[in-house]
Design a protein that fits this description.
Layout (H helix, E strand, L loop, with lengths): L1 E5 L6 H12 L2 E4 H14 L7 H8 L4 E6 L2 E6 L2 E2 L7 H10 L3 H17 L2 E5 L2 H5 L5 E6 L2 H14 L6 H17 L12 E4 L5 H13 L1
Helix pairs in contact: 1-9, 2-4, 7-8
Length: 217
């Protein structure tokens, strides 16, 4: 069985998907981590995401592996565990740019589909229900207001000991929304058969229960 969760940056997709996967005994596939890994490679190697030839050449040199160690997803980029490094803000912003590139999407699409064919999975991203897993049995479009998403991200960073600027976080989220929704290839949008779920006024547990109930129908 496949569950697809799509939605904008900061909507809580990863947090929710991990908890649902644990409750249902599914494998959680964080597609965003895959794109972030490519973004990290671009940043570390000073690759211009607008240089088409450079993008193609880079994709030929990138190997991404998803491994499950002690039940936790770990992401490896060319043999190096980058699960922590890919969570930086600059990597997330670059990921939104590289995800719009066809060579990048082609590189990851088959890997994602293979995992879903062989396992019960819950997968989150921007185009899972519309493009990666169009036949998923359950599709959720998970979202929240920009201000609420910014507040959640702000609190996450404060907990890590950082001193973030919530105004900048909100501006970054709005910019990523625009990039994700207006890219030429597989833009972020709600699948026709997806359930729209605004979590602005919902607790994490309420969202998890809602999705689990849909999976059991």
């Amino acid at each position: 069985m496949n569950i697809a969760i799509d939605g904008p940056a900061g909507a809580g997709k990863s947090t929710i998907a991990k908890l649902v996967a644990e409750k249902l005994g599914f494998i959680y596939v964080d597609t965003g981590a895959m794109y972030r890994s490519i973004a990290l490679y671009f940043i570390n190697n000073n690759i211009d995401s607008e240089d088409d030839k450079a993008v193609v050449d880079a994709c030929d040199k990138i190997n991404i592996q998803i491994k499950y160690e002690d039940g936790v997803q770990q992401v490896y980029l060319n043999g190096e565990n980058v699960s922590v490094a890919i969570r930086k803000e600059e990597v997330g912003n670059m990921a939104s740019k590289v995800a719009a590139k066809k060579p990048v999407r082609d590189l990851l699409l088959q890997l994602q589909r293979d995992i879903a064919t062989e396992n019960d999975v819950i997968m989150d991203g921007r185009d899972i229900g519309t493009n990666v897993l169009p036949n998923a049995e359950v599709k959720i479009y998970l979202t929240a207001s920009v201000s609420e998403r910014a507040r959640r991200r702000y609190e996450q960073l404060v907990e890590k000991g950082e001193n973030p600027d919530i105004t900048k976080i909100e501006a970054d989220i709005e910019q990523r929304d625009y990039q994700d929704m207006n890219r030429d290839i597989a833009p972020l949008k709600q699948a026709d058969d997806a359930i729209y779920l605004d979590t602005s006024d919902m607790t994490i547990q309420e969202v998890v229960e809602f999705i689990c109930d849909k999976a059991k129908v």
